[in-house]
Write a structure and sequence with these properties.
- The chain has 159 residues and is mostly helical.
- The protein has a domain of 87 residues.
- The protein is built from four helices and no strands.
- Helix 2 crosses helix 3.
- The mean pLDDT is 79.
Length: 159
Amino acid sequence: MRRRRYPSDTTDAELSVIEPLFPPPACTRPAGGGPEKHPRREIIDALRYVVSEGCRLRALPADFPPHQTVYGFFRRWIKSGAWHRIRDRSRREVRCQMGTSPNAVATVLDSQSVEASDTVGKHRTPHPRPPPAARTPNSPSSGRTPPTGARSPSGPGPS
């Protein structure tokens, strides 16, 4: 067991919340499997280190389990849905602490596809829009520049 030394290391309180959300070790299932060589806490700490430091998995310090082992657990936990369970539980707890509904609710309204009420906009007149500017062959919006000595729309050209 390695010593806690990084800011990203899991606390006992954090571990007690997320550990039940991971699948049971293979050695405890009927299909069987060998005991895990590295404690799960070290695997979790290694994954948190990679995320917090923004480094590659191969760049893990030597006091973590081998990067292949960490990646193997990560893949298995993704396939089992453990990360989704952790995310969902964390989101529910944060939303409850904020005093909002634990279940996320999102509504998207598109003004072009929703009809307005009969009372909306009846008492106002829309602001008139100015007519679009006339485009001249040598205006800046046409992408061309006038030849030297040509007259510009604002007055005579250079003398």
